[in-house]
């Protein structure tokens, strides 16, 4: 086991104005691993993602990424260091073409441009066919692929995928999971936020369950059985 985890989060808290949304969350993301972050609506999953990726400030606690304390780093800097957050929703520039969307993702990252574009098309061949299409006219699933391609093409160390499968047809959900599985094989670590737990647990090594901004349970994903999920998430989300 590697001594230093890729991501080391300790006692992390965050708030929106006077409302505290995260209460002292601690967890490690080992190198080459995946964590499923589960919890009911409003539990703080997206807030955890936003705090780690620098979109909102931590009010207490620390985040170490690859041995560096990034707690006060800007979102841009954190992204350049290799931690990419895919926020809930599609996150593409609707009026630009597929190719322009891909090129823009490269503007802030020092990677070989043609290699990165080739990597994007390897992950999602359909995007190569649609490279000149305006992104806003892609299907929801294709937009999700484009969003994921923009993240994976820059060879990130960690991807935080927030509700990637939300609203997608089952076949598209398969495509998204296949791409994330391929990314893991390339050494990308993943923090997967999901309201629907079953697939996330199959995908991940570890599992965190949040409840009202607190860490309610954490452990190996295979130990997050039906009874536990039912207790924290209710029947609708344990599927
Ligand atoms: N921009 C914001 N301003 C104020 N409060 C917010 C904001 N975003 C989230 N919150 C509040 O913070 C708490 C945690 O929300 P968060 O979006 O992190 O939950 P979540 O677990 O991701 O939920 P969901 O599954 O519904 O996306 C909730 O009480 C929510 O109302």
UniProtKB/TrEMBL annotation:
One of its GO terms (molecular function) is ATP binding. SMART domains: AAA. Keywords: Amino-acid transport, ATP-binding, Nucleotide-binding, Transport. Residues 7-237 form the ABC transporter domain. PROSITE patterns: ABC_TRANSPORTER_1, ABC_TRANSPORTER_2. SUPFAM superfamilies: P-loop containing nucleoside triphosphate hydrolases. One of its GO terms (biological process) is L-amino acid transport. Pfam families: ABC_tran. It comes from the Bacteria. Gene3D superfamilies: P-loop containing nucleotide triphosphate hydrolases. Belongs to the ABC transporter superfamily. This is Putative ABC transporter ATP-binding protein.
């Amino acid at each position: 086991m590697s001594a230093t985890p890729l991501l080391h989060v300790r006692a992390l808290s965050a708030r929106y104005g006077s409302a505290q949304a995260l209460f002292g969350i601690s967890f490690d993301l080992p190198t080459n691993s995946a964590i499923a972050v589960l919890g009911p609506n409003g539990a703080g999953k997206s807030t955890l993602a936003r705090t780690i990726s620098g979109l909102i400030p931590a009010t207490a606690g620390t985040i170490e990424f690859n041995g560096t304390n990034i707690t006060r780093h800007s979102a841009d800097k954190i992204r350049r260091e290799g931690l990419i957050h895919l926020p809930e929703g599609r996150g593409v520039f609707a009026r630009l073409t597929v190719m322009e969307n891909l090129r823009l993702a490269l503007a802030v990252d020092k990677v070989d441009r043609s290699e990165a574009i080739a990597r994007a098309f390897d992950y999602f061949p359909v995007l190569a066919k649609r490279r000149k299409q305006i992104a806003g006219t892609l299907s929801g699933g294709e937009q999700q692929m484009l969003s994921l391609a923009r993240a994976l093409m820059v060879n990130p160390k960690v991807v935080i995928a927030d509700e990637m499968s939300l609203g997608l047809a089952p076949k598209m959900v398969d495509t998204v999971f296949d791409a994330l599985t391929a990314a893991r094989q390339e050494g990308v670590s993943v923090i997967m936020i999901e309201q629907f737990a079953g697939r996330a647990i199959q995908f991940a090594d570890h599992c965190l369950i949040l409840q009202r901004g607190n860490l309610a349970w954490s452990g190996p994903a295979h130990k997050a059985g039906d009874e536990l999920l039912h207790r924290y998430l209710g029947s609708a989300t344990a599927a």
